Amino acid sequence: MVEKDIQILLVEDEPSLLAGLLLNLQLEGYKVTAAPNGQLALSQLKKQKFDLIILDLMLPDLNGMEILTKIREKGNFTPVLILSAMDEVETKVEGLTLGADDYMTKPFELKELYARVHAILRRHNGDIRVISFGDVKVFTEERRVEKNGKTVHLTPLEYDLLVFFIKNPNRAFSREAILDNNWPPGSDATVRTVDNFIVTLRKKVDDHRRPRHFITVRGLGYRFTS
Ligand code: CA
Fold it and tell me: How many whole angstroms from 213 Cα to the centroid of ligand 1?
């Protein structure tokens, strides 16, 4: 089922749930690191790159929302699945707004958790072969893009930037964060460069005059919506 070593950080303070989830996710083939509190979660995140964070909200030290805020502020866009007993709509909306990729309430069925984990990883790891939005199709294996059935020529960096946005839909990124996540450290690129690339992507795969996919977030940067 699992193709490569997928690293999951499991943040959960309830010992029996932590142990059960750890075992079950390992049986599914994932490499799992357990963090029973917020500080340990943050220190693990400094040490290692994860493919997914499963995040409880009510923890003994930090609240899960604070952890999520901290890691996103640091420009870490590791996918986050919130797993919480808090089932109020407002809490779900808050979590998703802060940058969680999904929200599941406890109690839950393992099967559903697996399905959601797979869905998040699929979106992020780009092993979907064809991604489409509007009249655009992205063939990830060939790194080829079509609009209205016609191939659109993108430079490698334009293509990578497009895929970066597709993998992080509806998330508002500052221009600095876009820069940090897509340009190598020490490059000459500035936030102006980011603006120029967005202009180009709009011309090539969106509508330059009335953008529907690359949306300007006033005072911040951009967000992509399919
Ligand atoms: Ca808890």
Answer: 37
Q: Does a structural domain hold residue 164?
A: yes
Q: Which residues surround ligand 1, an ion (CB under 5 A)?
A: 13, 56, 58
Rounded Cα–Cα distance for residues 69 and 167 (Å): 19
φ and ψ at residue 155, rounded to 5 degrees: -70, 160
* Same domain for 44 and 146: no
| pLDDT tens for each residue of 94-113 | 999 999 999 999 999 999 99
Contact 45, 71 (CB under 8 A): yes
- The residue among 110, 125, 140 that closes a domain is 125
Q: What are the φ/ψ torsions at residue 217 (nearest 5 degrees)?
A: -105, 110
Supply the pLDDT for residue 2.
37
